[in-house]
Amino acid sequence: MPRLTIDFFHDVVCGWCFNISPRLRALADEFDLAVHHRTFVLQDSRERMIEVWGSIAAAKETILGHWEACRRASDTPELFNLDGMRAAPFEYPFGLPAALACKAAERIGGPAAHWDMFDRLQKAHITEARNVADPEVLISIAKEAWYDPAHFSEVMAEFGTRRAVERDRQYAHRLQVRSVPTLVVRETGARLINGPVEDLRAQLRVALKLVA
């Protein structure tokens, strides 16, 4: 069976990404997919959040409305902790610090480490209602994943890590990616439409026929 390469553009604070990541994991095994993880931060600062939503409070309320839709479409709706995030004492987090943590994991442990860190951070954000824009929280999560916290902090702060996030952003712009999650089949240029695993499976079968 021909192998497909998927570019997976994602943002840790994206509820739709939380839904699609476990589906893609299952399909990666089933179809022997090569999945390349691409950070694509929608809002990279508190100021950008305010620019987009008008205020941090409005950003949080609007985004948690999106969580409601994500929960309805989820295979594991119980993992969306809306009450916990609504009650959280911190502002709704922007995605850049978590993207840097994902890239730090990738630079230390490779692509599989990026995916594992991405899933850990999404669980911390969506299920545990932790502040994934707080560097101390990110280092704590890295420590829970058995990284040396001092080394992880150093790698996360390196220019090369930020440059890796920027390279993903530039690549996304070349492909005219504007939202997350976006799954691009590199061999065909097709974009998989987010949906239940059976829908994604059908789309991958079509892609395989095109490259056979």
Kindly describe this structure.
By secondary structure, this protein is of the alpha+beta class. The protein has one domain (5-211): Glutaredoxin (3-Layer(aba) Sandwich), CATH 3.40.30. It has ten helices and four strands, in the order βαβααααααααββα. It has helices at 15-31, 46-53, 56-73, 82-87, 96-109, 111-127, 135-144, 149-157, 159-174, 197-211, and strands at residues 5-10, 34-39, 182-185, 191-192. It has a four-stranded mixed sheet, sandwiched between helices. Helix 1 (15-31) links the parallel strand 1 (5-10) and strand 2 (34-39). Helix 2 (46-53) crosses helix 3 (56-73), helix 5 packs across helix 8 (149-157) and helix 5 crosses helix 9. The longest helix has 18 residues, at 56-73. The chain is globular. The termini are close together. The mean pLDDT is 97.
Strand-helix topology:
Layout: E1 5-10, H1 15-31, E2 34-39, H2 46-53, H3 56-73, H4 82-87, H5 96-109, H6 111-127, H7 135-144, H8 149-157, H9 159-174, E3 182-185, E4 191-192, H10 197-211
Helix pairs in contact: 1-10, 2-3, 5-6, 5-7, 5-8, 5-9, 7-8
What Rg, in angstroms, do the CA atoms define? 17 Å
In the sheet with the most strands, the strands line up as 2-1-3-4
The CA-CA distance between the termini, in Å, is: 8 Å
Name the poorly predicted regions.
none
CATH superfamily: Glutaredoxin
